[in-house]
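Hey Z.,

So I finally got round to the GLP thing we talked about over coffee. Here's the setup:
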Amino acid sequence: MEVIITASPVEASAQAARIAAGVVRAKPGAVLGLATGSTPLRFYDELAGMHARGKLDLAQVTTFNLDEYTGLGPQHPQSYAWFMREHFFSRVNIAPERIHIPDGLARDIPAHCAEYEAAIRAAGGIDLQLLGVGSDGHIGFNEPSSSLGSRTRLKTLNERTIRDNARFFASPEEVPRHVITMGVGTILEARRCLVLAFGEAKAAAVAAMVEGPVTADVPASALQFHASCTLIVDEPAASRLKRAEYYRWVYHNKPEWQRV
Ligand code: GLP
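And the result:
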């Protein structure tokens, strides 16, 4: 895994946005896997800024979001569909028919999940998957103990994630208990993964993901098997990495052609 330690979330997000923009410029019909949460907000700002300056055309891009709460429709302000519209889709030119987010109101959830997987395949697979990390090491909503081969499916949130995400709701009781999420296996099939993590609250999860054993106890650790995964963190999120100096050394000694 490539680990890039940056001075701030602003710098990390700018770098991540340059990577994503590079993918789209090289392949205008690229398929992007998108994430929610507070972590990618600046990343979306950066991409929207590039678009506003006429530097990034997303007209042919297809997107698949990682996850959605069940029971919340796209008009619910805490739904991820709402989040994506508010923070990204309303600011760029992605064709609405090429935007995919799991349907939190799907009646037949297993059938909907199978269709979601089929839609990803039909689009040619995900070229770049953006990811955040939960403080418990989850990716998407794959909580600890998720199968590392899992596919898109219904998951039950654990109490820690409910607590972490309660800040967006009026009370923890309002956080849905169930979600639809791409599986770890689904995520691992993306051609490239780009993970962002900021702040000290993520330091333990980041260390376990990068340097710990690969285990379902830390679903993000499965990314150690990914052939092309870049993690961009700020200093506090990097604070528990044993090999931080080495990662900095690698970055500073990158050959010119590898730089973004
Ligand atoms: C949620 C999302 C994840 C996200 C995580 C971290 O649980 N399902 O995709 O990575 O939260 O959120 P934040 O970025 O707000 O710390």
